[in-house]
């Protein structure tokens, strides 16, 4: 326990289904032990697709709410967010994702509250102009707050390559997961999957946990799956998650593919799986692969962004080039047909998760950043008061640098 007591408002672009949303719910599980009292707000107003994580955040005790910002260029966006910050009585506000990282630092300054921002994506060249502009604005705006957090070394390095020299506020902080919730199954034997998933037969189960969005690369896995089924009869591809791309993916799916939708029992699903798969085309640091590693489940993933910071090729899993369905299928078959190697890699993945991605260690470092942000604001306020007193006393040539 700690004598810290901080109110933290977490502001995120939407409550859609995604890793950043699940991370907030996970973080709140240990926040009280660190003296953090958290709430969550979505910038965007509620829609069915943008509210898929609302029940998860509500169950986690985050008291989720909506600010109602429809567009980044909305004229009253910053005042609306500032109003929410004041109403929350937050000591610190933490923005997540691109639009929040642009607008929330401006609103926090208006509200007089210190702000941190986390970018959960991988900066990349050649993106469409609107996305490139928003990313540039986010990095500039968030970089003027107390901390701009990148979730992987790869993301920080990409931001430096594309947007120039880093500011002193830039930090790298790997996300963490609850290692007790994502425990390996006893004796390494997969547990029975939840019956309502509809997975039949006793063949191996390869599980993708990801929002159903194009950058997650589900199409690559679906193209590879017929070849996997030819070589490993009875194998099932279990797709866990939801999103705007679901109808398209379902139209592409063949035999042995099961869509589970959004689930709140991911740890149990991973404990019942044979292999984790993430065919992403871009990633900053995929939470799903960390969760798989914590479960002692080896993964086949792609060589994008921060994924190699989780999957050490040949030691904790296998990596393939993004978009290469043949290589992906071969890697899946290689591990499905070699139980001993799969077990060896899974054990190493769990050890890496313990060393690098423990939830309490991550949350503790985040709490320290909150403390630092509040202390910096208090110190800045004290300096301003001293300057005002000096000016009142007629000492006009003193500057804050002298103090």
From TrEMBL:
It is an enzyme of class 2 (transferase). Keywords: Glycosyltransferase, Transferase. The keyword Nucleus does not apply. The keyword Coiled coil does not apply. Its EC number is 2.4.-.-. It comes from the Bacteria. Coiled coil: none annotated. Residues 17-180 form the Glycosyltransferase subfamily 4-like N-terminal domain. InterPro entries: Glyco_trans_4-like_N, Glycosyltransferase_grp1. GO terms for molecular function: glycosyltransferase activity. It holds the Pfam family Glyco_transf_4. PANTHER family: SULFOQUINOVOSYL TRANSFERASE SQD2 (PTHR45947:SF3). This is Glycosyltransferase family 4 protein.
């Amino acid at each position: 326990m700690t004598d810290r007591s901080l109110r933290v408002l977490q502001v995120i672009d939407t409550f859609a289904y995604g890793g950043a949303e699940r991370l907030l719910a996970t973080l709140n599980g240990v926040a009280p032990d660190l003296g953090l009292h958290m709430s969550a707000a979505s910038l965007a107003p509620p829609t069915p697709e943008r509210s898929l994580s609302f029940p998860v955040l509500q169950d986690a005790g985050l008291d989720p709410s909506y600010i109602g910002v429809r567009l980044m260029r909305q004229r009253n966006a910053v005042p609306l967010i500032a109003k929410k910050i004041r109403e929350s009585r937050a000591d610190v506000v933490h923005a997540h994702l691109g639009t929040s990282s642009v607008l929330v630092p401006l609103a926090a300054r208006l509200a007089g509250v210190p702000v941190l921002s986390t970018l959960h994506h991988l900066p990349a060249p050649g993106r469409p102009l609107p996305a490139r502009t928003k990313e540039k604005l986010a990095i500039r705006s968030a970089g003027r707050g107390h901390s701009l957090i990148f979730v992987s070394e790869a993301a920080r390095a990409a931001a430096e390559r594309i947007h120039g020299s880093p500011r002193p506020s830039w930090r790298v902080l790997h996300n963490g997961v609850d290692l007790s919730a994502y425990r390996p199954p006893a004796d390494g034997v997969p547990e029975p999957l939840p019956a309502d998933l509809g997975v039949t037969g006793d063949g191996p189960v390869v599980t993708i946990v990801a929002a159903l969005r194009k950058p997650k690369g589900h199409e690559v896995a679906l193209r590879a799956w017929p070849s996997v089924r030819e070589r490993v009869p009875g194998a099932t591809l279990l797709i866990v998650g939801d999103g705007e791309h679901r109808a398209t993916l379902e139209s592409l799916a063949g035999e042995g593919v099961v869509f589970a939708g959004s689930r709140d029992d991911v740890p149990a699903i991973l404990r019942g799986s044979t292999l984790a798969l993430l065919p992403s085309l871009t990633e900053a640091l995929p939470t799903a692969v960390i969760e798989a590693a914590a479960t002692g489940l080896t993964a086949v993933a792609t060589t994008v962004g921060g994924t190699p910071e989780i999957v050490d090729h040949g030691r904790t899993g296998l990596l393939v080039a993004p978009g290469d369905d043949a290589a992906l299928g071969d890697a899946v078959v290689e591990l499905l047909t070699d139980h001993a190697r799969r077990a060896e890699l899974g054990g190493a993945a769990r050890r890496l998760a313990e060393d690098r991605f423990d939830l309490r260690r991550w949350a503790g470092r985040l709490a320290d950043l909150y403390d630092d942000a509040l202390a910096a604001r208090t110190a800045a306020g004290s300096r301003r008061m001293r300057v005002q007193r000096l000016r009142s006393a007629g000492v006009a040539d003193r500057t804050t640098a002298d103090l």
